[in-house]
Amino acid sequence: MAGKAFTTILVQAALLFSTPLLGQTAGADLLKTLQDRYDEIHAAVLARNENLIKSIVSPEYQDIDTSGKTKSRDEWLTSIEKIDVSIEKAGGTTVTSVHQDGSTVFVKQNYNMRATRMIQGASHDVAIEATSSDTWSSGDKGLILMRSETDEISVKLDGTLVKHSVAHRT
């Protein structure tokens, strides 16, 4: 009887360690690949390369701000056309965590931008910090960005907080 129980435990352990776990935290390779994808998007925005952006961002993409307002990929593309490239150069995204569940990859990322800008004839330090929860899909075309939900955003002007918004999602 003890031998059978021991064998059952060994079989269960073998199954546990030989079967990939769903919802596992992703490894360093995937984290680097995703960081590279965000860097590609940033470079494409700076270069106004809409074709490159469309190759990374799904046609079904949804961009959701902290108030819950959703933009489609085309609406998002229109909004980024208005971005001042000279300021955006100072920005960047950092992947902070990656979690994979099958072909779906969940990413937590931070965006930070600090720059000096002329506003109403005076020079001001502008800082934007945002955290987002993004969803990517892994498939034949590599990793494609499906959704980005801004969790929190802060905007500072000369060190003074002028906007702070946190998403209240259920």
The H-and-E topology, N to C, reads as HEHHEEHHEEEEE
* Poorly predicted residue ranges: 2-24
* Percent strand: over 45%
Please name the CATH architecture. Answer: Roll
* Content-based structural category: alpha+beta
Overall mean pLDDT stands at 83
What best-fitting shape do the alpha-carbon axes yield? globular
Q: What is the makeup of the main sheet?
A: 8 strands, mixed
Could you name the CATH topology? Answer: Nuclear Transport Factor 2, Chain: A
Number of strands: 8
The gyration radius over C-alpha positions equals 21 Å
Question: What is the class in the CATH system?
Answer: Alpha Beta
**Termini separation (Å)?**
50 Å
**What is the total number of structural domains?**
1
Secondary structure: helix percent: 25-40%
| Number of helical elements | 5
Keywords: Signal
Signal peptide: 1-23
Characteristics of this structure?
disordered N terminus, alpha+beta, eight-stranded mixed sheet, 170 residues, 5 helices, Nuclear Transport Factor 2, Chain: A
How would you characterize the overall build of this protein?
- With 170 residues, the chain is of the alpha+beta class.
- The protein has one domain (22-166): Nuclear Transport Factor 2, Chain: A, CATH 3.10.450.
- The protein has helices spanning 2-18, 28-47, 50-56, 73-80, 85-88, and strands at residues 24-25, 57-64, 70-72, 91-101, 104-119, 122-139, 142-157, 160-166.
- Strands 1, 2, 3, 4, 5, 6, 7 and 8 form an eight-stranded mixed sheet that branches.
- Strand 7 and strand 8 (160-166) form a beta hairpin.
- Mean pLDDT is 83; it is low at 2-24.
